[in-house]
Amino acid sequence: MALVRMYFAVENVAMTSVDQQALLASLATILARGSAAHELLQIQDALNGQTRILEALFDETDINPNAFEQRLSIITGLALNKIVRADSSLSYAPGTTTFVAAYSYSSALRVRVRLFGGISPLPTYAQSHAEEQAYLVANATAWYDYSGGS
Questions:
Q1: How far is 20 from 37, CA to CA, in rounded Å?
Q2: pLDDT tens for residues 14-40?
Q3: Fewer Cβ atoms within 10 A, N terminus or C terminus of the chain?
Q4: What is the pTM of this model?
Q5: Count of beta carbons in the 10 Å neighbourhood of residue 137
Q6: Is there a contact between 77 and 71 (Cβ–Cβ < 8 Å)?
């Protein structure tokens, strides 16, 4: 078991609100193990409420793409072979990457998970933080209200 402090994002593309809430509750369980090693440090929601970024100290087995796929299978009641995962990577900051896993079921893309800093090898906290910050800058209008209103 390796612990990693990193940022990741969960983006609801077309999940039902019930499935989205179940997924977020499921993610909360990996942080509620009574161990200081599983500590939630920060949550940030996009303005539209469809994407959430979490910063935490995790056991690496809890945040890998297969673990997310298993979580979706439990939440949706679908067999693992009914969930299709497409992996890609992007880079928002120099020298680091974001691993993106897009999960589809029932013929539609449902949820996208971004692991800031990549997964192999596991990122340092500094790499994950730099990538997450660059992602926020690149997508600022989705995260920050510049209207000047209250």
A1: 25
A2: 878 888 888 777 776 666 454 555 555
A3: C
A4: 0.83
A5: 12
A6: no
